[in-house]
Amino acid sequence: MHNPYKDAVTQLELVARRLESEYSDKQRFRAAIQLLTTPERLHEGSLEITLDSGKQQSFKAFRSQHSSARGPYKGGIRFHPGVTKEEVQALSLWMSWKTAAVGIPYGGAKGGVVVDPRLLSPAELERLSRAYVRFLGTAIGPWVDVPAPDVNTTPQIMAWMVDEYEVMMRESNTAALQNPLASFTGKPLTLGGSEGREEATGLGGVYVLEELAKKLHWQRKQDITVAIQGFGNVGYWFAYHADTAGYKVVAVSDSKSGVFVPTGLDPVRTLACKRETGKMGTCACNEKECHVSLGKQVSNQELLALDVDVLVPAALENVITSETAPKIKAKTIIEMANGPTTPEADEILAARKIQVVPDILANAGGVSTSYFEWVQNVSGSHWSKAEVLTKLQPLMVTAFNDIWSVYEREATTFRLAAYQVAVKRVIDALFLRGRV
After folding, report:
1. Residues 303, 308, 311, CA angle at the centre, nearest 5°?
2. Which of the listed residues 12, 30, 187, 383 has the most CB atoms within 10 Å of its CB?
3. Which CATH number fits domain 40-179: 3.90.1200.10, 1.10.260.40, 3.40.50.10860, 1.10.10.10?
4. Model pLDDT for residues 425-434, shown as the tens digit of each residue
5. Chain centroid to CA 197
6. Do the two domains 40-179 and 199-353 of this chain adopt the same fold?
7. Fold of the domain built from segment(s) 199-353
8. Is there a contact between 112 and 80 (Cβ–Cβ < 8 Å)?
9. Per-residue pLDDT tens for 64-92?
10. Which residues are catalytic?
11. What's the alpha-carbon Rg for the chain, to the nearest Å?
12. Residue 5 and residue 319 in contact, taking contact as beta carbons nearer than 8 Å
Protein backbone atom coordinates (compact mmCIF):
# COMPACT_ATOMS: atom_id res chain seq x y z
CA MET A 1 0.00 0.00 0.00
CA HIS A 2 1.33 3.43 -0.96
CA ASN A 3 2.49 5.52 2.00
CA PRO A 4 2.05 9.28 1.38
CA TYR A 5 3.83 10.11 4.65
CA LYS A 6 7.01 8.48 3.33
CA ASP A 7 6.61 10.58 0.19
CA ALA A 8 6.37 13.76 2.27
CA VAL A 9 9.48 12.86 4.27
CA THR A 10 11.36 11.97 1.06
CA GLN A 11 10.52 15.40 -0.35
CA LEU A 12 11.78 17.05 2.85
CA GLU A 13 15.04 15.10 2.73
CA LEU A 14 15.58 16.09 -0.91
CA VAL A 15 15.21 19.79 -0.16
CA ALA A 16 17.40 19.45 2.94
CA ARG A 17 20.34 18.48 0.73
CA ARG A 18 19.98 21.74 -1.18
CA LEU A 19 19.42 23.91 1.88
CA GLU A 20 22.22 22.65 4.11
CA SER A 21 24.88 24.83 2.49
CA GLU A 22 22.95 27.96 3.60
CA TYR A 23 23.49 27.15 7.30
CA SER A 24 26.85 27.38 9.07
CA ASP A 25 25.70 25.28 12.03
CA LYS A 26 25.23 21.94 10.25
CA GLN A 27 24.39 20.03 13.42
CA ARG A 28 21.62 22.44 14.31
CA PHE A 29 20.29 22.36 10.74
CA ARG A 30 20.15 18.56 10.72
CA ALA A 31 18.39 18.60 14.08
CA ALA A 32 15.76 20.92 12.60
CA ILE A 33 15.22 18.63 9.61
CA GLN A 34 14.93 15.62 11.91
CA LEU A 35 12.37 17.49 14.00
CA LEU A 36 10.34 18.36 10.91
CA THR A 37 10.09 14.76 9.70
CA THR A 38 7.62 14.00 12.51
CA PRO A 39 4.44 15.86 13.51
CA GLU A 40 4.65 17.59 16.88
CA ARG A 41 1.41 15.94 17.97
CA LEU A 42 -0.73 13.13 16.56
CA HIS A 43 -4.26 12.64 17.90
CA GLU A 44 -5.75 9.24 17.15
CA GLY A 45 -8.96 7.76 18.53
CA SER A 46 -12.49 6.56 17.89
CA LEU A 47 -15.66 8.61 17.75
CA GLU A 48 -18.77 6.80 18.96
CA ILE A 49 -22.15 8.17 17.97
CA THR A 50 -25.74 7.02 18.18
CA LEU A 51 -27.25 6.30 14.78
CA ASP A 52 -30.85 7.17 13.98
CA SER A 53 -31.67 3.48 14.48
CA GLY A 54 -30.51 3.73 18.10
CA LYS A 55 -27.43 1.60 17.51
CA GLN A 56 -23.93 2.78 18.43
CA GLN A 57 -21.21 3.02 15.80
CA SER A 58 -17.53 3.93 16.05
CA PHE A 59 -15.46 5.84 13.52
CA LYS A 60 -11.67 6.11 13.48
CA ALA A 61 -10.47 9.72 13.78
CA PHE A 62 -7.14 11.53 13.41
CA ARG A 63 -5.58 14.99 13.73
CA SER A 64 -1.92 15.48 12.85
CA GLN A 65 -0.37 18.74 14.08
CA HIS A 66 2.95 19.04 12.30
CA SER A 67 4.58 22.37 13.14
CA SER A 68 3.63 25.41 15.22
CA ALA A 69 6.92 27.24 14.58
CA ARG A 70 5.31 29.96 12.48
CA GLY A 71 1.93 30.18 14.20
CA PRO A 72 -1.19 28.16 15.05
CA TYR A 73 -1.64 24.83 13.29
CA LYS A 74 -3.82 25.13 10.18
CA GLY A 75 -5.39 22.47 8.00
CA GLY A 76 -8.57 20.82 6.86
CA ILE A 77 -10.69 17.96 8.12
CA ARG A 78 -11.74 15.29 5.66
CA PHE A 79 -14.54 12.73 5.97
CA HIS A 80 -13.60 9.86 3.66
CA PRO A 81 -13.48 6.05 3.88
CA GLY A 82 -9.86 6.12 2.65
CA VAL A 83 -8.50 8.32 5.46
CA THR A 84 -5.37 6.86 7.11
CA LYS A 85 -2.93 7.99 9.75
CA GLU A 86 -0.18 8.17 7.12
CA GLU A 87 -2.34 10.35 4.87
CA VAL A 88 -3.13 12.97 7.51
CA GLN A 89 0.51 13.01 8.66
CA ALA A 90 1.66 13.68 5.09
CA LEU A 91 -0.97 16.32 4.53
CA SER A 92 0.02 18.09 7.76
CA LEU A 93 3.63 18.36 6.53
CA TRP A 94 2.46 19.76 3.21
CA MET A 95 0.28 22.29 5.06
CA SER A 96 3.32 23.56 6.97
CA TRP A 97 5.12 24.13 3.67
CA LYS A 98 2.04 25.66 2.05
CA THR A 99 1.45 28.29 4.73
CA ALA A 100 5.16 29.11 4.73
CA ALA A 101 5.33 29.30 0.93
CA VAL A 102 2.74 32.08 0.82
CA GLY A 103 4.05 33.75 3.96
CA ILE A 104 1.01 33.53 6.23
CA PRO A 105 1.60 33.06 9.99
CA TYR A 106 0.43 29.48 10.42
CA GLY A 107 1.86 26.02 10.89
CA GLY A 108 0.48 22.85 9.35
CA ALA A 109 -2.13 20.31 10.43
CA LYS A 110 -4.64 17.91 8.91
CA GLY A 111 -7.45 15.80 10.27
CA GLY A 112 -9.80 13.12 9.12
CA VAL A 113 -12.48 10.63 10.00
CA VAL A 114 -12.79 7.22 8.33
CA VAL A 115 -16.37 7.46 7.10
CA ASP A 116 -18.44 7.64 3.94
CA PRO A 117 -20.63 10.66 4.80
CA ARG A 118 -23.11 9.69 2.08
CA LEU A 119 -24.18 6.77 4.29
CA LEU A 120 -25.10 9.03 7.21
CA SER A 121 -28.27 11.05 7.68
CA PRO A 122 -27.89 14.80 8.33
CA ALA A 123 -28.56 14.21 12.03
CA GLU A 124 -25.90 11.46 12.18
CA LEU A 125 -23.44 13.66 10.33
CA GLU A 126 -24.02 16.43 12.86
CA ARG A 127 -23.40 14.06 15.77
CA LEU A 128 -20.18 12.87 14.16
CA SER A 129 -19.01 16.44 13.54
CA ARG A 130 -19.64 17.44 17.14
CA ALA A 131 -17.97 14.25 18.41
CA TYR A 132 -14.85 15.13 16.43
CA VAL A 133 -14.61 18.50 18.20
CA ARG A 134 -15.04 16.82 21.59
CA PHE A 135 -12.33 14.33 20.63
CA LEU A 136 -9.84 17.17 20.05
CA GLY A 137 -10.98 19.36 22.96
CA THR A 138 -8.46 22.05 23.87
CA ALA A 139 -6.06 20.84 21.17
CA ILE A 140 -7.88 23.24 18.83
CA GLY A 141 -8.71 26.93 19.14
CA PRO A 142 -8.06 30.32 17.53
CA TRP A 143 -4.47 30.50 18.79
CA VAL A 144 -3.76 26.75 18.84
CA ASP A 145 -5.15 24.95 15.77
CA VAL A 146 -7.68 26.34 13.28
CA PRO A 147 -9.34 23.57 11.21
CA ALA A 148 -11.19 24.07 7.93
CA PRO A 149 -13.20 22.06 5.37
CA ASP A 150 -11.50 19.48 3.19
CA VAL A 151 -12.72 16.45 1.22
CA ASN A 152 -16.43 15.80 1.91
CA THR A 153 -16.71 18.46 4.62
CA THR A 154 -18.74 21.61 4.14
CA PRO A 155 -19.53 25.03 5.61
CA GLN A 156 -22.49 23.38 7.39
CA ILE A 157 -20.15 20.88 9.04
CA MET A 158 -17.88 23.75 10.10
CA ALA A 159 -20.96 25.48 11.57
CA TRP A 160 -21.74 22.44 13.73
CA MET A 161 -18.11 22.17 14.76
CA VAL A 162 -17.70 25.83 15.70
CA ASP A 163 -20.93 25.66 17.68
CA GLU A 164 -19.69 22.62 19.59
CA TYR A 165 -16.41 24.38 20.27
CA GLU A 166 -18.32 27.38 21.65
CA VAL A 167 -20.38 25.08 23.89
CA MET A 168 -17.13 23.59 25.25
CA MET A 169 -15.74 27.05 25.92
CA ARG A 170 -18.86 28.03 27.86
CA GLU A 171 -18.64 24.84 29.90
CA SER A 172 -15.05 25.68 30.83
CA ASN A 173 -15.84 29.38 31.46
CA THR A 174 -13.29 30.50 28.83
CA ALA A 175 -15.73 31.72 26.15
CA ALA A 176 -15.12 35.38 27.03
CA LEU A 177 -11.36 35.08 26.43
CA GLN A 178 -11.56 34.72 22.65
CA ASN A 179 -13.96 34.81 19.74
CA PRO A 180 -14.95 31.14 19.28
CA LEU A 181 -15.88 31.84 15.66
CA ALA A 182 -12.14 32.15 14.98
CA SER A 183 -11.63 28.49 15.90
CA PHE A 184 -12.69 27.25 12.44
CA THR A 185 -12.58 28.70 8.94
CA GLY A 186 -14.63 27.85 5.86
CA LYS A 187 -17.80 28.67 7.82
CA PRO A 188 -21.07 30.01 6.36
CA LEU A 189 -21.10 33.78 5.90
CA THR A 190 -23.69 34.22 8.64
CA LEU A 191 -21.32 32.61 11.15
CA GLY A 192 -18.26 34.69 10.36
CA GLY A 193 -17.28 33.07 7.08
CA SER A 194 -15.35 35.06 4.52
CA GLU A 195 -16.63 36.46 1.27
CA GLY A 196 -14.86 34.86 -1.69
CA ARG A 197 -13.86 31.70 0.20
CA GLU A 198 -15.75 29.32 -2.09
CA GLU A 199 -13.78 30.25 -5.20
CA ALA A 200 -10.49 31.25 -3.55
CA THR A 201 -8.54 28.02 -4.11
CA GLY A 202 -9.38 27.78 -7.81
CA LEU A 203 -8.90 31.51 -8.35
CA GLY A 204 -5.53 31.45 -6.57
CA GLY A 205 -4.43 28.72 -8.97
CA VAL A 206 -5.38 30.87 -11.94
CA TYR A 207 -3.41 33.79 -10.49
CA VAL A 208 -0.42 31.42 -10.51
CA LEU A 209 -1.22 30.34 -14.08
CA GLU A 210 -1.24 34.00 -15.14
CA GLU A 211 2.19 34.61 -13.59
CA LEU A 212 3.57 31.47 -15.22
CA ALA A 213 2.21 32.61 -18.58
CA LYS A 214 4.22 35.84 -18.23
CA LYS A 215 7.43 33.98 -17.37
CA LEU A 216 7.00 31.54 -20.27
CA HIS A 217 5.98 34.31 -22.68
CA TRP A 218 2.69 32.76 -23.74
CA GLN A 219 1.41 35.28 -26.27
CA ARG A 220 -2.10 34.01 -27.04
CA LYS A 221 -4.09 32.69 -24.09
CA GLN A 222 -6.84 31.43 -26.39
CA ASP A 223 -4.35 28.92 -27.83
CA ILE A 224 -3.36 27.51 -24.41
CA THR A 225 -5.37 24.34 -23.76
CA VAL A 226 -6.21 23.20 -20.23
CA ALA A 227 -7.42 19.81 -18.94
CA ILE A 228 -8.69 19.53 -15.35
CA GLN A 229 -9.02 16.25 -13.47
CA GLY A 230 -11.59 16.84 -10.76
CA PHE A 231 -14.66 19.05 -11.15
CA GLY A 232 -15.53 19.71 -7.54
CA ASN A 233 -15.24 23.12 -5.95
CA VAL A 234 -11.55 23.61 -6.75
CA GLY A 235 -11.64 22.22 -10.28
CA TYR A 236 -14.78 24.12 -11.21
CA TRP A 237 -13.54 27.50 -10.03
CA PHE A 238 -10.16 26.96 -11.68
CA ALA A 239 -12.00 26.15 -14.93
CA TYR A 240 -14.30 29.15 -14.52
CA HIS A 241 -11.56 31.68 -13.88
CA ALA A 242 -9.20 30.20 -16.48
CA ASP A 243 -11.98 30.41 -19.05
CA THR A 244 -12.81 33.96 -17.98
CA ALA A 245 -9.12 34.91 -18.32
CA GLY A 246 -9.14 33.65 -21.91
CA TYR A 247 -7.58 30.18 -21.68
CA LYS A 248 -9.18 27.27 -23.56
CA VAL A 249 -10.49 24.66 -21.10
CA VAL A 250 -10.92 21.52 -23.20
CA ALA A 251 -11.47 18.73 -20.67
CA VAL A 252 -12.84 18.18 -17.16
CA SER A 253 -13.71 15.09 -15.15
CA ASP A 254 -15.29 13.96 -11.92
CA SER A 255 -14.68 10.71 -10.02
CA LYS A 256 -16.67 8.65 -12.55
CA SER A 257 -15.96 10.08 -16.00
CA GLY A 258 -14.82 13.07 -17.99
CA VAL A 259 -15.51 14.97 -21.17
CA PHE A 260 -13.14 16.31 -23.85
CA VAL A 261 -14.32 19.20 -26.05
CA PRO A 262 -11.44 20.10 -28.43
CA THR A 263 -12.88 23.50 -29.38
CA GLY A 264 -13.24 24.51 -25.71
CA LEU A 265 -15.98 23.90 -23.16
CA ASP A 266 -18.06 26.28 -21.08
CA PRO A 267 -17.52 25.56 -17.35
CA VAL A 268 -20.84 27.09 -16.20
CA ARG A 269 -22.94 25.16 -18.71
CA THR A 270 -20.94 21.99 -18.06
CA LEU A 271 -21.56 22.18 -14.32
CA ALA A 272 -25.27 22.77 -14.88
CA CYS A 273 -25.40 19.73 -17.18
CA LYS A 274 -23.57 17.58 -14.62
CA ARG A 275 -26.02 18.59 -11.88
CA GLU A 276 -29.00 17.92 -14.14
CA THR A 277 -27.89 14.58 -15.59
CA GLY A 278 -25.43 13.29 -13.03
CA LYS A 279 -23.20 12.15 -15.90
CA MET A 280 -20.14 14.29 -16.56
CA GLY A 281 -19.08 12.20 -19.55
CA THR A 282 -22.16 13.19 -21.55
CA CYS A 283 -21.83 16.92 -20.82
CA ALA A 284 -20.05 18.15 -23.94
CA CYS A 285 -21.04 21.80 -23.58
CA ASN A 286 -19.83 24.98 -25.23
CA GLU A 287 -21.18 28.45 -24.55
CA LYS A 288 -24.22 27.84 -26.76
CA GLU A 289 -25.33 24.26 -26.17
CA CYS A 290 -24.63 20.79 -24.83
CA HIS A 291 -24.48 18.09 -27.48
CA VAL A 292 -22.66 14.78 -27.72
CA SER A 293 -21.24 15.76 -31.12
CA LEU A 294 -19.17 18.57 -29.55
CA GLY A 295 -16.80 16.21 -27.79
CA LYS A 296 -16.23 12.75 -26.41
CA GLN A 297 -16.29 10.96 -23.09
CA VAL A 298 -12.91 10.22 -21.49
CA SER A 299 -11.82 8.38 -18.37
CA ASN A 300 -9.71 10.00 -15.68
CA GLN A 301 -6.69 8.08 -16.94
CA GLU A 302 -7.33 9.21 -20.52
CA LEU A 303 -7.66 12.83 -19.36
CA LEU A 304 -4.20 12.68 -17.79
CA ALA A 305 -2.75 11.67 -21.15
CA LEU A 306 -4.48 14.30 -23.32
CA ASP A 307 -2.27 16.40 -25.59
CA VAL A 308 -2.81 19.77 -23.86
CA ASP A 309 -0.62 22.64 -22.72
CA VAL A 310 -1.69 22.62 -19.06
CA LEU A 311 -2.79 19.64 -16.97
CA VAL A 312 -4.51 20.41 -13.66
CA PRO A 313 -4.93 17.51 -11.21
CA ALA A 314 -7.62 18.84 -8.85
CA ALA A 315 -8.92 15.66 -7.20
CA LEU A 316 -7.14 13.39 -4.69
CA GLU A 317 -3.46 12.64 -4.08
CA ASN A 318 -1.24 10.17 -5.94
CA VAL A 319 -2.87 10.28 -9.38
CA ILE A 320 0.37 11.02 -11.22
CA THR A 321 2.55 7.99 -10.59
CA SER A 322 5.50 6.21 -12.18
CA GLU A 323 2.91 4.46 -14.39
CA THR A 324 0.98 7.53 -15.53
CA ALA A 325 3.83 10.09 -15.71
CA PRO A 326 5.38 8.67 -18.93
CA LYS A 327 2.02 9.04 -20.68
CA ILE A 328 1.52 12.72 -19.87
CA LYS A 329 1.73 14.99 -22.91
CA ALA A 330 1.08 18.31 -21.17
CA LYS A 331 3.93 20.82 -21.07
CA THR A 332 2.91 22.17 -17.64
CA ILE A 333 1.20 20.69 -14.59
CA ILE A 334 -0.50 22.89 -12.00
CA GLU A 335 -1.25 20.85 -8.89
CA MET A 336 -4.58 21.95 -7.45
CA ALA A 337 -5.02 18.75 -5.42
CA ASN A 338 -2.86 18.00 -2.39
CA GLY A 339 0.00 15.64 -3.19
CA PRO A 340 -1.19 14.47 -6.64
CA THR A 341 2.34 13.52 -7.81
CA THR A 342 4.51 10.81 -6.27
CA PRO A 343 8.29 11.38 -5.87
CA GLU A 344 8.96 8.69 -8.50
CA ALA A 345 6.67 10.46 -10.96
CA ASP A 346 8.35 13.77 -10.14
CA GLU A 347 11.69 12.40 -11.33
CA ILE A 348 10.12 11.22 -14.58
CA LEU A 349 8.44 14.57 -15.20
CA ALA A 350 11.66 16.46 -14.46
CA ALA A 351 13.60 14.27 -16.89
CA ARG A 352 10.96 14.97 -19.53
CA LYS A 353 11.21 18.75 -18.90
CA ILE A 354 7.56 19.02 -17.85
CA GLN A 355 7.11 22.05 -15.61
CA VAL A 356 5.27 21.28 -12.35
CA VAL A 357 3.83 24.07 -10.21
CA PRO A 358 3.50 22.31 -6.84
CA ASP A 359 0.43 22.13 -4.66
CA ILE A 360 2.02 24.06 -1.81
CA LEU A 361 1.88 27.15 -4.03
CA ALA A 362 -0.79 26.42 -6.64
CA ASN A 363 -3.68 25.62 -4.29
CA ALA A 364 -2.67 27.96 -1.45
CA GLY A 365 -5.44 30.43 -2.32
CA GLY A 366 -7.77 28.46 -0.07
CA VAL A 367 -5.64 28.57 3.06
CA SER A 368 -4.79 32.21 2.33
CA THR A 369 -8.45 33.15 2.33
CA SER A 370 -8.94 31.02 5.44
CA TYR A 371 -6.27 33.23 6.99
CA PHE A 372 -8.25 36.30 5.91
CA GLU A 373 -11.37 34.78 7.54
CA TRP A 374 -9.45 34.17 10.78
CA VAL A 375 -8.12 37.75 10.78
CA GLN A 376 -11.66 39.07 10.32
CA ASN A 377 -12.92 36.90 13.19
CA VAL A 378 -10.22 37.78 15.70
CA SER A 379 -10.54 41.49 14.89
CA GLY A 380 -14.34 41.57 14.67
CA SER A 381 -14.25 42.75 11.03
CA HIS A 382 -16.04 41.80 7.83
CA TRP A 383 -14.49 42.43 4.42
CA SER A 384 -16.30 42.59 1.11
CA LYS A 385 -15.59 40.02 -1.58
CA ALA A 386 -13.69 42.66 -3.54
CA GLU A 387 -11.48 43.38 -0.52
CA VAL A 388 -10.75 39.69 0.01
CA LEU A 389 -9.84 39.00 -3.62
CA THR A 390 -7.83 42.22 -3.79
CA LYS A 391 -5.73 40.92 -0.89
CA LEU A 392 -5.44 37.42 -2.39
CA GLN A 393 -3.93 38.36 -5.73
CA PRO A 394 -0.78 40.16 -4.50
CA LEU A 395 -0.20 37.45 -1.90
CA MET A 396 -0.22 34.72 -4.58
CA VAL A 397 1.78 36.80 -7.05
CA THR A 398 4.47 37.63 -4.47
CA ALA A 399 4.72 33.98 -3.42
CA PHE A 400 5.08 32.87 -7.05
CA ASN A 401 7.83 35.37 -7.78
CA ASP A 402 9.74 34.59 -4.57
CA ILE A 403 9.81 30.94 -5.62
CA TRP A 404 10.56 31.72 -9.28
CA SER A 405 13.66 33.67 -8.20
CA VAL A 406 15.00 30.62 -6.35
CA TYR A 407 14.04 28.38 -9.28
CA GLU A 408 16.09 30.46 -11.72
CA ARG A 409 19.01 30.97 -9.33
CA GLU A 410 19.32 27.34 -8.27
CA ALA A 411 18.61 25.74 -11.66
CA THR A 412 16.37 23.23 -9.94
CA THR A 413 12.76 22.09 -10.37
CA PHE A 414 9.99 24.48 -9.47
CA ARG A 415 8.82 22.08 -6.76
CA LEU A 416 12.22 21.99 -5.09
CA ALA A 417 12.41 25.78 -5.32
CA ALA A 418 9.03 26.08 -3.57
CA TYR A 419 10.14 23.66 -0.88
CA GLN A 420 13.42 25.51 -0.40
CA VAL A 421 11.56 28.77 0.23
CA ALA A 422 8.98 27.17 2.53
CA VAL A 423 11.20 24.82 4.54
CA LYS A 424 13.80 27.56 5.08
CA ARG A 425 11.12 29.82 6.54
CA VAL A 426 10.05 27.08 8.97
CA ILE A 427 13.64 26.26 9.97
CA ASP A 428 14.43 29.93 10.52
CA ALA A 429 11.37 30.17 12.81
CA LEU A 430 12.57 27.13 14.77
CA PHE A 431 16.00 28.74 15.17
CA LEU A 432 14.51 32.07 16.29
CA ARG A 433 12.36 30.31 18.88
CA GLY A 434 15.30 28.28 20.14
CA ARG A 435 13.53 24.98 19.54
CA VAL A 436 16.68 23.42 18.06
Report:
1. 60
2. 187
3. 3.40.50.10860
4. 999 999 999 9
5. 13
6. yes
7. Rossmann fold (3.40.50)
8. yes
9. 999 999 999 999 999 999 999 999 999 99
10. 110
11. 21
12. no
